[in-house]
Amino acid sequence: MLTRRKKISGYFSHVYSLLPFFLPLAAIFLFGSTVLAETWYVKPSSEIPIRSGQGTEYKILSVVPDGLKVEILEENDPWVKVQTTGGTEGWMLKRYLSGALPLSKVVADLEAQKAKLEENGEKTNRKLVEISAAHSQLEKEFNVCRTERDEIQKTYKALRNDTADVLKIKQNLADKTQENQALKQKMATVEQQNKTLKRNTSLMWFLAGGALLLIGWIIGMMTGRSRKRKSTLL
Hints:
Layout: H1 2-18, E1 38-42, E2 48-51, E3 60-64, E4 69-76, E5 79-84, E6 89-93, E7 97-98, H2 103-233
Antiparallel strand pairs: 1-4, 1-7, 2-3, 4-5, 5-6
């Protein structure tokens, strides 16, 4: 029993020599109240015994390594009742516990994060290559679209000029159409006047012919009477 106590005392001395390298423990000893189901970790040290009671004279139920996660079930400073992940319940000195993650756990987490970051970095690099290729393709398509845009602009300008010419021609055609309609109306008026003139001329010729016939008839009558008078005289 004394040998075991000496061994434990040696463990404690070793632990004390490591205390300056870890977080302060002042907060751990501020309160003596009971804490239920709080997760703590065994500090880096030699293996720490878990006893059946609050004292070195009680039976050792288990010896736990540093970094082991335990849950505090009850607290009675300087002792705490803990439960290990394996289900062992017992008492151990509170100074062997820390709320901070053990260095081995921190290192393991950092290595896992590093591996995750490297994996994400590889994925990011692959994605970057894909994006660069897509960017090059989009740039080519953009240049093609820009060339097509320039061609469309040229075609649009030409069509606009042609449209202006067409509108001008259309306006000229409308003007010519109006002039043509005016000429048609004048021609219709002239034709109507020509028809009227023809009718009047025909009538005049008819009257003139009738007058000639009448004059001839009168002359004939006068000539016939003159001859009869001469015959009577003879």
